[in-house]
Predict the structure.
Amino acid sequence: MSTLKCLRTERSLVAELATDPAPVILVEVSERIGLITLNRPERRNALNGELMAALDGAVRALASDDDVKVVILTGAAHEGGVGGFCSGGDVKAGSQGSPGSELGVPPDARSGDLSRHDGHAAMRLHLMPKPTIAMVGGPAVGAGCSLAAACDLRLSSEDAVFATKFSPNGLSGDYGGTLFWTRIIGTALTRQLYLLNEMIPARRALELGMVHAVVPPADLRDHTFQVARQLTRTPAALMALIKANLNDAEEDVGRRRYLFAQEADNQAEAGRLIRARLERSADPPAGEYEPAEQALQSRE
């Protein structure tokens, strides 16, 4: 049975049919604050093709909605949990190649007009003329870690954890993470994140400058909305000028687009390599690949 889900746009409500019993993404707008919730808690909000497409649409809709002055990204809590975020790509569901996945890892990313990548969900979160906040109430792993880095501010619960975990899955990285994290914490710490795949607890992430605040899990939502309300007091036109200054100060536009495209291209190539290897051997060597979900469960 189909479920009707609605996303706000600048002038109207756009209805889409979702094939799951529950929508994979939830969008709420109140007090001029837009809240996007990744809604696959049973998979720790891992990104499959459907969720990639839904996230793209939700970010696009809120970015263009004049009634929204701040955008918050978060994830639904798993059973028994208080908060959540995103555990990365859904490896079990075969996120690469599934319908909608082209919006996560664009095919032929280095070909054609690279300006199209400014419309990618992660890049749009970073570039839109409105402040964006990652409300990290759970694991931010893989593409989830990249999405957190894409936002202007990162507010975390005490039980959140950050990790890349791409290479244990035979992948190289996506959603702009290598670009964003290098800007945020520098090349040395970003290399540590991607090469060693360490799980970074929230308090350590705060020490490293990865997040802006760490609060008890039960207080995260209230704290995040308090920050968002403060941001809404700045006139939208003025905030757009501030965001433009901040974005322009980071990187030459052409180089930014090239780096994003290169990362996506390398991710696609890594996926091709692992598929070729799995075709040659149905059973990869024990311990060679470790799905992010398995790594997270081992911590509990």
Summary: Residues 3-216+236-297 form a domain with the 2-enoyl-CoA Hydratase; Chain A, domain 1 fold (CATH 3.90.226.10).
